[in-house]
Amino acid sequence: MNSYGANAVFVDATWAPHPLGIGTLTWAPDATAGWIGGRDLGQFRHARYGTSDDIWLGAAGARFRLGTEGDWYHPLYFSFQAALHTGRTQALSSAYEFVSTLGWQWRRFSFSVRHISNAKLHKPNRGETMALVGMRFD
């Protein structure tokens, strides 16, 4: 938030993909559990929504992929989830949020950019955007 970093840990689970329509687009159910550490920013210390709360988050939705195993772009995915969380901050001020993730998963490793926000349904709505690296376990 405002370019001040925070620690974050996420665990994602994705189930078997299912075809979506007649092309090579697939969707798979996915779920996320995560934690985002609070920050101590003096400018928000006495605000209604501060920045020091840790956020514990649970989300569920769908992961979308295009192509088949041999296609160069198949490791690219987009995920959209609805989330509930604890804590209230300048970035995540409501109990509900939406999680959008664009990522690349190659074998056991992944890199993704994730944005969490309430889509301006409640103010303030700064959102959290993060870069994540991951490892897959079977």
Descriptive overview:
There is one protein chain. Strands 1, 2, 3, 4, 5, 6, 7 and 8 form an 8-stranded antiparallel sheet that branches. With 138 residues, the protein is mostly beta strands. A hairpin with a 6-residue loop joins β2 and β3. The mean pLDDT is 91. 0% of the residues lie in helices and 50% in strands. It has one domain: Porin (Beta Barrel), CATH 2.40.160. The termini are far apart. The relative contact order is 0.19.
Name the features.
single chain; 138 residues; mainly beta; Porin; 8-stranded antiparallel beta sheet; 0% helix
Helix content: under 10%
Mean pLDDT: 91
Uncertain segments are: none
From the helix content, strand content and strand pairing, which structural class follows? Answer: mainly beta
**SSE series:** EEEEEEEE
The whole-angstrom Rg is: 16 Å
CATH fold node name? Porin
Overall shape? elongated
Largest sheet, in brief, is: 8 strands, antiparallel
How many domain regions? 1
Percentage of β-strand residues: over 45%
Label the CATH architecture: Beta Barrel
Distance between the termini: 33 Å
**Tally of DSSP β-strands:** 8
Reading off the top of the CATH hierarchy, the class is best stated as: Mainly Beta
Total of DSSP H or I helical runs spanning 4+ residues: 0
Q: What is this structure, in a nutshell?
A:
The protein is an all-beta fold and 138 residues long. Helices cover 0% and strands 50% of the residues.
